[in-house]
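Quick question, first post here. What does this chain look like in 3D?
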Amino acid sequence: MEDMIGSLMMQEFVSVWVRDPKIQKEDFWHAHIDYEICIHTNSMCFTKKISCVRRRYSEFVWLRQRLQENALLVELPRLPPRNPFFSLNNAQQITERMKGLQQFLDVILQNPVVLSDSRLHLFLQSQLSVTKMEACASGQTRFSVDQAIQRCGCELRRFHSEDELRGVDKACWDSDCESTSSSGLGQSSEAAMACEEDTLIQDATPIEEALLTCASVSVCGEQEVEP
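> Answer (accepted):
Ran it through. Tokens below.
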């Protein structure tokens, strides 16, 4: 019995959370919402076992298209559909979209074919833009996929024990990581922008300790622009 329990505990797992929608202003007239994606895993497929990044809906669309091209015989789950009337004022629409993105990741992370695609790992564990992810996955950057992930991934150092990590799905996450979170409504993190440059190889800013809190959805009068 003890051997069986030990074997079960050693099984690989991948836990993902899509949470904390935030408004990011592009200019005076345009804004969009991005979401925090947190990963906790012991899988050998992942460079980092704990990470946290922010992604917007259009980046999910890009990811699905690229993954489908690389896995022709696998039918990937659909993303929540585009909504021409999507509003930053509508908390229900935001919540429904966030749940759909969560379900999408839950399914594809169980597929070993998809897990072999480096673009998925860059999407989940780096702050590179779509253009940079394409270039890095194609070997056209001076840094590798592993280097991109190691330098830009958030280590979530606020968690001090394995018990806290395993129990984190029972609470909301509120990251204080400079490289992944917004510095305020309408202002993008400078550290995240730095990760877009080829100076990525330099050491990232240390992550401050943060308390585990629940975040609420921010609202704004602008409409989301979905390229």
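Residues 155-162, 168-225 have pLDDT under 50 and may be disordered.
Strands lie at 14-25, 31-41, 50-56.
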